[in-house]
Amino acid sequence: MPTADSTGATLPAPSDTEIRSRILRQAASIGLAVSPFALAFGILCAEADFRLIEAIGFSSIVFGGSSQFASALVLADGGTVTAAVVAGGLLALRSLAFGVVMAPALWGPFWWRAAVSQLMIDESLAVGALQTDLRWRRFGYLAGGIGVFVPWNLFTILGFTIFGGAGDLVTSLGIDATIPAAFLALLWPRLSDPKQRLIAGVGAVVAIVGAPLLPPGIPIVLAAAAVALLRPWRKQTSHLAGVS
Amino acid sequence: MAEANKSSSGCVVRNPLLTVLVLGAISYALKSAGPLLLGGDRTLPAWLDRTAVLLPAPLIAALVASSTFVSDRQISVDARAVGLAVAAVALWRKAPFIVVVLLAAAGAALTRQLV
């Protein structure tokens, strides 16, 4: 992998076919990893007496794992629409930052950008933004987004209609550990660069320390501010060769 | 996330459909602002580009950290941390992506069995 490190040690560039299949494998693995959560989401909706169409609405229209979970949980506990929207909205705030990150890779006509924006979630960002080349960021974003959208909705329906105890299944099979592991795997190549390691570390600390102190979702948005440590707006040598 | 259901029985005033529509609209506005306003054939100003390129590292690291060490807004070190540690070792040993993910699940599951 042509890593974005500043050590200058680059491996021979892999072929397009290799990169494409690597990204598709990543997207498929993440799609697989999130499926049990969609199953749990469907079950949650069924137990909260939502209608199937509402469960699907959450998974396709809202389409943002933690945001839809938070919102549906508020409703399930008897909360108001306003409370549910605020809970979900706070967790969706980060997609604003994701959009800024992905924008350069999402060139194309207005309608196309409007359509693919719906795929702006943690997973599409992780698969897309961590590729080095603009064109592979675009490909990774689409692969990650579609690779999650389809199973996410299928498993929501499955969970809703089957109605079982998959909430326990998620923890007893260790499935809740798969998503951080997958994200760490995508982040890994960047951690060989000391500067990126620094801001990643600070971001992680902010997310953990901020969790008990701030409303849900805010610490993750705040973590992005860690880039300020590097003062990237000043003219300087690029941290990332190959990304224009 | 998993301890979902204190399903309030009886007739509670709530409206999932309205929630979906309002939250969906807000989410979409947040998701699409970047691609619609900054995307297309326009190039970002250089300073913003240099900043945006660095954003994924802290953002993804924050997602890793919060999905591992946070539970119900409390800091918690549990089986997920073992899963993440196993994943880190696997990555250090250059294991393939899917192996990393599966080992993390196995590590967390095994920890829950033993503890």
Largest interface, counted with CB-CB under 8 A? A-B, 125 and 90 residues
Q: Number of DSSP helices of chain B?
A: 5
Shape, principal axes of CA atoms of chain A: globular
Described by strand count, sense and barrel closure, the largest sheet of chain A is: none
The averaged pLDDT of chain B comes out at: 84
Strand content of chain A: under 5%
N-to-C SSE string of chain B, H for helix and E for strand = HHHEEHH
Oligomer: heterodimer
- What's the Cα radius of gyration of chain B? 20 Å
Structural class of chain A: mainly alpha
N→C terminal distance of chain A: 18 Å
Characterization of this structure:
The complex is a heterodimer of chains A (244) and B (115). The model of chain A is unreliable at 1-8 (pLDDT under 50). Chain A has 244 residues and is mainly alpha-helical. Chain A has 12 helices and no strands. Chain B has 115 residues and is mainly alpha-helical. Chain B has a domain at 55-114. Chain B contains 5 helices and 2 strands. In chain B, a hairpin with a 2-residue loop joins strand 1 and strand 2. Chain B is extended, with a radius of gyration of 20 Å. The chains are: A mainly alpha (244), B mainly alpha (115). At the A-B interface, helix 1, helix 2, helix 3, helix 4 and helix 5 of A face helix 1, helix 2, helix 3, strand 2 and helix 4 of B.
